[in-house]
Amino acid sequence: MSTTPNSEIGSHVRLYLYKLPTKNHDSMVNLSNQFAEIFKNHGCYARSFQVESLEKSENFSNVANAVSCKQDEEVWLDLEFTKDLKHRHEVDSKIQNEENAGVLMKRFLELIAQESKPIKSDFIIPGR
What does DSSP assign to residue 60? Predict the structure, then answer.
């Protein structure tokens, strides 16, 4: 097995960055596990992460500052890895046709901090 990032996880990643009220933590853990399973069923590796620390270092800011995180909020990051852009579109299409996926997305939007919009961006490995 090759150890290049492209062969391990693909060359395309979608990032979601959002704030979550701390009171919704357990519900989001459950929801993110359900999303991960749906993506796995379609050949996509997806995982949610919670910011571990709000500490700043001398030369860097913390992502919590970038999204204006309040004391009673957590910052979460979701990553979805696909082989390439074509695979990304295939996965999106298949998931949109799943009835449960729409219900989960609605629940996601209810759980996140209501005064903010999640950040969504797509990235590729340069030169691929």
Answer: B
The CA distance from 65 to 30, in Å, is: 26
Helices (H), 1-128: 5-9, 25-41, 63-66, 85-96, 99-111
pTM of the model: 0.85
Strand order in the sheet with 12-21: 45-50, 73-82, 12-21, 119-124
Tens digit of pLDDT for each residue in 88-123?
A: 999 999 999 988 888 999 999 999 988 888 999 999
Could you tell me the CA-to-CA distances from 94 to 5, 51, 100, 101, 109 in Å, in that order?
24, 30, 12, 10, 20
The rounded distance, in Å, linking the Cα atoms of 40 and 56 is 34
* Those residues with Cβ within 8 angstroms of residue 57's Cβ, 6 or more apart along the chain or in another chain: none
- Tell me whether strands 119-124 and 12-21 are parallel, antiparallel or unpaired: antiparallel
Identify the three-state secondary structure at position 50.
strand
